[in-house]
Amino acid sequence: MRNKAEPEHKDDAIAMVQKENNFSGWYSEILKRAEILDVRYPVKGVYVWYPYGYKLRNLVYGFLRSLLDKEHEEVQFPLFIPKEELMREKEHIKGFEDEVFWVTKGGSTEMEIPLALRPTSETAIYPVFKVWIRSHRDLPLRIYQIVNTFRYETKHTRPLIRLREITSFKEAHTVHATRADAEEQVKKAVALYKSFFDRLAVPYVITKRPAWDKFPGADYSIAFDALMPDRRTMQIGTIHLLGESFAKTFDIKYEDKDGSLKFVNQTCYGISERCVAAVIAIHGDDHGLVLPPAVAPIQVVIVPIVFSSKGKDKGKSVEEACVTVYEELKRAGIRSFIDNSAERPGAKYYRWEMKGVPLRIEIGPRDLENNSCEFVRRDERDQKQEKKRIQIPFSDVVSEATRRLGAIQDSIHEAAKDALYSHIYIYNHKSEENMEMEMEMGMEMEELKRKVEDGTGFGIVSVFLCNSERCGQELEDQLGVSVLGEQVYENATGAETGGKKKNKGRCVVCRKEAKRAYIARTY
Q1: Which residue in 53, 105, 279, 427 is a FRET match for 205, CA 20 to 30 A apart?
Q2: Global model pTM greater than 0.85
Q3: Residue 437: half-sphere exposure toward Cβ, Cα within 13 Å
Q4: Does the residue 245 lie in any domain?
Q5: Are residues 111 and 66 in the same domain?
Q6: DSSP characters for 209-232?
Q7: 168 and 40: one domain?
Q8: Domain limits at 384?
Q9: 290: closest CA among 207, 376, 378?
């Protein structure tokens, strides 16, 4: 029986926009209500981090740093890139030329050499690599930085997803003696990203981007994509094998053991604050954020239940018990907070549910009599949409909080993976006999279109597609999708709703031999 004086759900605030029916509206609203970003800055595509949002951001990137620091060195390169350096890699700048911000004046004086605000840092870093690298003893070189980057985004901007100022761009750059060493680094980067996104409880698919959509200047690109609630995919991480292309442009060579000069082989890989957007979008519900304990700024909130009718002494005892519990949790390394504000308990519940705090502990006079407190998990609701309450002895608070935070982390991750799996459709094409019939091919395209239909379809569809850009473009034009690319490495395929999966077949467009590729609507 509930021993608090108020019902769980009081009208303490206006109801949230429903996530399932209006993801865009829900997302904008939650950033404001949960105090993640303030979007009122007077420049399009530029936003301000609230303190709570910045704590979330720092916990996310703190874990990313801990992974990178095992093998990489952190650096910081300048924001400005001289035009002549930016333009040296023609294929690379061609991919960014319409997105570059230029500084052309210093005060009122025209600058002799225009300076670009970095869209990404290859052309800033690699001239320095030429100076740093002389011998095979200087290799491998692995560095990273987390910096602001700028891109003149002309599409519809969206906080954390599509920006003009990316405030938290992690870019790693590595240099190796051979292509084989560089390809091995690509595999290490894939493993690092898996560890990172698993920690965020964000499921993903991994693809090798088609040749026409690879990173400008790369030999090939690997991408991680997450499925958002509106059934569109969002690229959340990329890894690029650069080979010798930039080395030849910037003349980066090393002296081998035999005295010969050789071009280096390179990789680079990046993650932006889209990783934070994925945590917010994938896990949140109609009541606000649902944060994985691993990155929640506050893992446990303690709410004292004190009423004047109980007398000052009992109120003081409740507050003392809250402080004791807080200190025990703090010593155990659990991020905790006591909400001893003057708000009603119902208003406090609403506030901390909105902010996604994984676990709430309530302590009132009757709890003191029972020498216990109540645990309420953020991720659990029964069929009546009421919170499940569990009575925990004070002596077991730390051990039970630790255990339940781990259970919440796992539960959130499993729910997110189930949601992804249920929206991946493995499409097995019609009989390959009589495939020249245009009617049958048209019917097949109509069926595929239904599978990726925005908001109602599967979201991600696996099809057979050859490497031809013409076929890829035709598929994209007919279905209104993007080709994510060939399925590589270990992918989250889940329950295959399209029947038994085959790895090789005939291209859905030209009927030539093809491999499986993912297609989806994208951000």
Answers
A1: 53
A2: yes
A3: 10
A4: yes
A5: yes
A6: --GGGSPTT-SEEEEEEEE-TTS-
A7: yes
A8: 298-406
A9: 378
